[in-house]
Specification:
By secondary structure, this protein is mainly α. It is 65% helix and 0% strand. The chain is built from four helices and no strands. Helix 2 packs antiparallel against helix 3.
C-alpha cells in the first residue's frame, strides 16, 4: 500500500503542475487568474474534506490534487518573469492580469521556506499534536 500511496502522490503533484499550465498557458487565463481560481478550488475541497464525518478517499485525494494545483501555480506566479520576451509565438500578453511577479526561484523559495518555518514554529509553540482518530468501524480485524 505504501508504494501505491507514493505513486498516487507523484501523479497528483505532476498533474497539479500540468493543470496549472493548462489553465494559465494553453487556455490563456494567465497565472494571476489561474492562481486565484485554483486556490478557491483548494479551499472548497478542503472545506468538504474537513466537514466530512468520516474518512473518504475521494475527498482526501481531491484535496491532495487541489493542493498541488494551487501550490505549483502560486509558485509559478511568484517566480516567473512578467516580461513579454518570455511569451511564446510573438504574443504580447497571456490572459488577464500580471503574468508573474518575477521574483525568481531563489527569492520565491526563500519566501516559501520562511512561511513554512513560521507555520511549523507556531504549530510547535501551540503544543498541538497531529492525531489520526480511527473509529471502531474503520479498524482492521
Amino acid at each position: 500500500m505504501t508504494l501505491a500511496f507514493w505513486i498516487m502522490k507523484i501523479a497528483a503533484t505532476t498533474l497539479g503542475e500540468t493543470a496549472g499550465d493548462l489553465f494559465a498557458q494553453t487556455l490563456e487565463l494567465g497565472y494571476f487568474l489561474t492562481t486565484i481560481a485554483l486556490f478557491l478550488i483548494f479551499v472548497v475541497t478542503l472545506v468538504v474534506q474537513l466537514r466530512s464525518s468520516h474518512y473518504n478517499p475521494f475527498f482526501y485525494w481531491t484535496v491532495i490534487l487541489s493542493t498541488s494545483m494551487a501550490g505549483t501555480t502560486t509558485s509559478d506566479f511568484m517566480n516567473r518573469d512578467a516580461s513579454v520576451k518570455y511569451l511564446s509565438g510573438g504574443a504580447t500578453s497571456l490572459g488577464w492580469g500580471p503574468q508573474g511577479l518575477g521574483m525568481g526561484c531563489p527569492t520565491g523559495a526563500a519566501i516559501l521556506i520562511s512561511i513554512l518555518l513560521v507555520v511549523l514554529a507556531v504549530w510547535k509553540a501551540t503544543g498541538t499534536t497531529f492525531q489520526i482518530r480511527v473509529t471502531p468501524a474503520a479498524r482492521c480485524s
